[in-house]
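Shift notes (night). Ran Ribulose bisphosphate carboxylase large chain while the centrifuge was going.
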Amino acid sequence: QPGVPPEEAGAAVAAESSTGTWTTVWTDGLTSLDRYKGRCYHIEPVPGEEEQFIAYVAYPLDLFEEGSVTNMFTSIVGNVFGFKALR
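Came back to this:
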């Protein structure tokens, strides 16, 4: 969105597509959100496009079922495409 710093948008994407949508429940004391959150580790501008950026996000493998491309795809893409802060 216009006016949102790329670093803030990258961090929001990382959170939204990993632990940012988790609902607080009594079991929160049993897991460490730090261990499971995605991290935006690099942002670069899109050549020739003003105010457009590519955010690189890393996710812990523990978030995904082993060998399940479908699980990975829906976990990442499903959340990010529905994220209103992005355009």
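Strands lie at 39-45, 53-58. The longest strand covers residues 39-45.
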